Each structure stands twice: as C-alpha cells, then as structure tokens.
Amino acid sequence: MMTVYIDFEALEWKVAKYLAIDRYTQAASKLFKIPPEEVTPEQRKKVEEITIRLSYGAPPDRIPK
Fold first, then answer.
1. Within a domain: 3
2. What pLDDT, in 10s, does the model give residues 3-52?
C-alpha cells in the first residue's frame, strides 16, 4: 500500500502567487475590517508574523498582540 501526502497549504500559496494575490494583505483587510488597498505595511507585517508563528505552533505568549 502506498501513502500519498499532499500539502494543500503549499499549493494554496502557489496559486495565490500565480494569481498575484497577497494573502497577508487580504487577511489584514479582514482582521482590521478595511479595504485591502488601505492596509498599511505595518498591519500587513503584523498579520504575517502572527500567521507564520501560528503555522509553526508558537505558544500564545510568543504571538504578537
């Protein structure tokens, strides 16, 4: 029996990159309830940090507020 592993997160990133969609800007837009074009570089960076830390299993005290 052969086991097949598919990493859908990596696939999602590649599709987003191909479509020129910035996931962090989109997430910041939803989090801060503002249009994507109004997201500041600081807001985008904060969401990027949170997303990466959560995806690697960081404990709550290591997540930026």
1. no
2. 887 777 778 778 877 887 788 999 999 999 999 999 999 999 999 998 88
Distance CA(44)–CA(25), nearest Å, equals 5
Helix count (H) and strand count (E) of the chain? 3, 0
Q: Is the model's pTM score more than 0.90?
A: no
The residue segments making up the domain with residue 31 are 22-62
62 and 38 Cβ atoms separated by less than 8 Å: no
Question: Helix, strand, coil proportions of the chain in percent (round to 5)?
Answer: 65, 0, 35
CB 13 within 8 A of CB 20: no
